[in-house]
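Entry:
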Amino acid sequence: LKHMAERISEAMTQVYDVNQEIALAASMVRAKTGLKIPDAIISATATLAKTELWTLDKKLASAHKGAVFLG
């Protein structure tokens, strides 16, 4: 449990700007999955940052390969 808390704490300190690369990737995610724009941006950002995506959103978790559903 301590290890998970440390991982969450570390992840919460990382902030990514939505740049042109993320915006383009998000548009492709949206076209492929039908996710809403904010979720597509989250998915694209996680993919490009090579990070694990943890979410409480079932649809996002299903659409993003390797996502961890926390619900």
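The beta strands are 54-55, 68-69.
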